[in-house]
Design a protein that fits this description.
heterodimer, A: 269 residues, alpha/beta, Rossmann fold, six-stranded mixed sheet, four-stranded antiparallel sheet, 12 strands, globular, B: 343 residues, mainly alpha, ABC transporter involved in vitamin B12 uptake, BtuC
């Protein structure tokens, strides 16, 4: 796996048609770290990730990969440095695990470069890193939600990029599989030094797994940094319009958000 | 670490595609030979081979083989191949089994243009073919534009296509009412999809077009494999989604267009071939070539059944494929929403 490239947003604005979703965003993704983007629904966090992955062209500004505009670079060259797993991908009917993960090798092949032993090895490595090697001959549609998500991550891993972007990789998974997927991504980060950037919904898991946390609201970054420095009661209240207590997570010592609602919230109400 | 499970599985899937393709190829060859040999005048296989190789044969054999049966069988193979490939391209690109060119109005567009050419303008058959191709391209551009909403996909394309197809069917009917009775009669048979009386006049433009389109489709197979995963994943893998999709659509439309120009809109061949291929292959691999071969088998078989096995009067191939295809379409429509794959 190549050393991770640098990834920055410079004055980045993104939108769909006339609708602006992300406005004038400038930041740098820390290399070789796990970065998690959080924020309320419709804050533009998924849009921002799609912009970083050149799935969405910027309406202003640029995304810089190794200092060069990602939209100006040939898409295949970008695909050798940066992988993206979009939200809720759908596998073709009847496809097997091996076939799906093999398609992650697409940027390494060309019109005249055929499948080689290197490709076999990359696919096998991706399967074993995600604990899905024994599923190699199974159909993707027979798998459980957690297995399926690990197989999709394996497809992105087979691409062998230094940067991996994931849009809500834990959605629709039960808590066991959520933790399993996040552990897997940290394994990848620690073993290969890969830069991981993901959008997550669950604040407490985000705080636990992130080295670097980006908090967004209404298309702008409210604050970014180490979770313990960033996730304060006032930030959560400002961003999510919800009162809460922040206590140390008894397991990981990272900040843990305890929401305060109108009911069943004891004296804190 | 060993890559052996991956190697084994990839080898198994590749072997499966090859074995199925070889069996289908053998079936095409067998049906091709059968349609050259069987008829009111039976010709033995050795005589056919001798005739094809230009060696001396009994009287009449050369005429029957070279003038009557060979062009018809060649058109059947090429038309089937073209419809099968076109259907596979469309269905796998749009990820919807209903999105085949004969369902979404592409062949209806080719038909209207061809009827205009044959029945009203009385132009040469080469011009008529070109007009049919033009009709297919125009219609698909229209369907594409009408169903475009930040991308094309799912049921919107299918519904718009069915609507456009219905409108074009009425255009075709109108043209028929304006035509001379005899040319209208010819057009009607052509509209059902028939191989009756095909000559080298149809074979020549068709084979030139296929020499370009089949390799183009097979080169684009890699693009199908990427696009099958959805636009975002395909882009993430470094594919130029827009350009590849356009190239595939153009190749698919041209395949459907030249096939319709040569034999009429043989019902449901494009629609049925790819699902059959997918069943036979049994994995998620793109199934372009197997679908094309199934198309050839279906058209050869339908033409043979229609010509020799059903009662006294010969039926056009399109009647036979229609009888098989229509129930399948109904079944698909009835079950698509229940399984939630309607999109």
């Amino acid at each position: 796996m190549p050393a991770p490239s640098t990834l920055q947003a410079e004055g980045l604005s993104l939108g769909y048609g006339d609708r602006r979703v992300v406005t004038d965003l400038t930041l740098e993704i820390p290399r070789g770290k796990v970065t998690v983007i959080v924020g309320p629904n419709a804050c533009g966090k998924s849009t921002f990730l799609r912009g970083l992955a050149r799935l969405l062209p910027p309406s202003a500004g640029a995304v810089l990969l190794d200092g060069k505009s990602i939209h100006a670079a040939p898409s295949r060259e970008v695909a050798l440095k940066l992988g993206i797993l979009p939200q809720g991908p759908i596998a073709p009917d009847g496809i097997t695990v091996t076939d799906l993960v093999s398609r992650g090798r697409h940027p390494h092949q060309g019109m005249f470069r055929r499948w080689t032993a290197d490709d076999d090895n990359a696919v096998a490595a991706a399967l074993s890193a995600t604990g899905t090697l024994e599923l190699a001959a199974r159909g993707v549609d027979e798998l459980s939600g957690g297995q399926r998500q690990r197989v999709w991550i394996a497809m992105a891993l087979a691409q062998r990029t230094g940067i991996l972007l994931l849009d809500e990789p834990t959605t629709y998974l039960d808590v066991t599989h959520q933790v399993e997927v996040l552990d897997l991504l940290v394994d990848l980060n620690e073993a290969e030094g890969a830069t991981v950037v993901m959008v997550l919904h669950e604040l407490n898991l985000a705080a636990r797994y992130a080295d670097h946390l980006i908090v967004m609201k209404s298309g702008a970054v409210v604050t970014a940094g180490e979770p313990s420095a960033v996730l304060t009661e006032s930030v959560v209240e400002e961003v999510f319009s919800m009162r809460c207590r922040v206590v140390p997570d008894p397991v990981s010592r990272t900040p843990m958000i305890v929401p305060i609602g109108r009911h069943r919230s004891g004296d804190a109400r | 670490m060993t890559a052996s499970p991956v190697v084994a599985e990839r080898r198994r899937e590749t072997r499966r595609v090859r074995v199925v393709s070889l069996i289908l190829l053998a079936l095409v060859v067998a049906l091709f030979a059968l349609s050259l040999s069987y008829g009111s005048f039976q010709i033995s296989l050795p005589d056919i081979v001798r005739s094809l190789l230009g060696q001396p044969t009994p009287p009449q054999v050369d005429y029957i083989v070279h003038t009557l049966r060979l062009p018809r069988a060649v058109v059947a193979v090429l038309v089937g191949l073209a419809f099968g490939l076109a259907g596979a391209i469309f269905q796998q690109l749009v990820r919807n089994p209903l999105a085949s060119p004969d369902v979404i109005g592409v062949t209806a567009g080719a038909s209207s243009a061809a009827v205009l050419a044959i029945a009203i303008l009385s132009v040469s058959s080469l011009t008529a073919s070109a007009m049919a191709l033009g009709g297919a391209l125009l219609t698909s551009a229209l369907v594409y534009v009408l169903s475009w909403r930040q991308g094309v996909g799912g049921y919107r394309l299918v519904l718009v296509g069915i609507g456009v197809g219905a409108a074009l069917a009425s255009v075709t009917s109108f043209l028929l009412t304006r035509a001379d009775v005899r040319t209208a009669q010819d057009s009607l048979i052509w509209l059902v999809g028939s191989l009756n009386g095909r000559t080298w006049d149809q074979v020549k433009p068709l084979s030139v077009a296929m020499l370009i389109l089949v390799p183009a489709a097979l080169i684009l197979r890699r693009a199908v494999a990427g696009l099958q995963l959805g636009d975002d994943v395909a882009k993430g893998l470094g594919m130029n989604v827009e350009r590849n999709r356009l190239a595939l659509l153009v190749v698919g439309v041209c395949l459907a267009g030249v096939a319709t120009a040569a034999a009429g809109p043989v019902a449901f061949v494009a629609f049925m071939s790819s699902p059959i291929a997918v069943r036979l292959i049994g994995t998620g691999r793109p199934t372009l070539l197997p679908a094309g071969l199934i198309g050839a088998v279906v058209v050869l078989a339908a033409d043979f059944i229609g010509a020799h096995l059903v009662g006294g009067t010969p039926y056009p191939a399109g009647v036979i494929t229609g009888v098989v295809g229509a129930p399948y379409l109904l079944w698909l429509l009835a079950t698509a929403n229940r399984t939630g794959r309607g999109g």
